Amino acid sequence: MNSKNSFLGDLSDRSYDDAIAFHGHSCPGLAIGYQAALYAKELLNLEYSEDEDVVVITETDSCTVDSIQTVLGCTAGKGNLFVNNWGKNAFTFYNRKTGKAVRLMMSPDVIQNPEADAVRQKVMSGTATPEDMKRHKELSAQRVQNILTTAPSQIFEVKEPQIPVPEKAKIFSNIICSVCQESVGVARCIEKDGQTVCQFCASKM
User: Fold this and answer.
1) What is the per-residue pLDDT across 10-61, written as a single tens digit (0 to 9) for each?
2) Which CATH number is 78's domain given?
3) Does any domain span residue 189?
4) Which residues fall within 8 angstroms of residue 80, CB to CB, at 6 or more apart?
């Protein structure tokens, strides 16, 4: 595959710079997601997914997800990216063509650095000095470099998937909510008090 797109360029070999361009900045989370996507490509013989051949379930909503979108073409809009925000750096990849799947769980000691954690806490709390901010950027850049130069097999533990591959995306017709009179997908409606209503209106009834 050597697909081209005037905006995205060569889809078959997306780089970390492409991930930065999509995400907006470089950071350890983006690097972790990039390595996860590359490892999944290797393990499952994946290519950039222009449709739903590749499916990903992430267990975090962190920066990691943007690298996976960049490298593998998995998006919520195509129905092949599912975000379960369970606070884990774990990612399950599925190859619909082969039926193979793998769950990658990041080793907890990959980005442990007491100094970096302490400085980051100051930055997040708003108490960081200019010197702290400078050191935070230096340590973050070091983390990124360490992650990108470490073999993915040393970053992630390969596990069996916990969840079966999700069904392919379906297109449903729309109906009008009986309460707010707004158009809503029929699959997301709720029958309540003898009325077909959207979930928002159902929560208010």
Assistant:
1) 566 889 999 999 999 999 999 999 999 999 999 999 999 988 999 999 999 9
2) 3.30.1330.20
3) yes
4) 49, 51, 52, 54, 55, 56, 74, 169
